[in-house]
Amino acid sequence: MTRKRWLIMCGGVAVLLAFALLAVDPSRKGEGYPGIIDWEFAFSQERAAEILGGWGEEGADAARLSLRLDFAYLLAYGAFFALAAAATRDLAAARGWRRMAGFGPVAIWCAIGAALFDAVEDVFLLAALDGEGGDTAPRLGATFAGLKFLLLAAAQAYIVAGL
Length: 163
Description:
The chain has six helices and no strands. The chain has helices at 3-24, 36-40, 45-94, 98-102, 104-129, 136-162.
């Protein structure tokens, strides 16, 4: 299968999973309810308990489902952005943009790293949902979430710059 087909397939799966994640986000209960992004950046057991209290059992179950679905989502978006960065690198090389092509491997690893950090984040956030890990689980979950978004933004910036 060609890279183009893999890009289309991974992108399509990522979009479908993104809609599924939006559908199960605990914030769908109504305005003012914290969402899964709020949970990702709870940073402390106290804030995590506050969010869980607002969600109730139904919201906690939705967050658990969301975090489990995220494992499939991170594979799809990680592959999509790594492949898109590789395509951007190859296009830059073909156009003679040596400096842009030189950043390609970094952008590819940023996409892969973002997906890996997302997986680690999910493990800590699932532990926090189960009341395990004290302050450490939400703090590490939030740290890995921040790193994920930073690396993903770097990969996306490279791809956009290459367009």
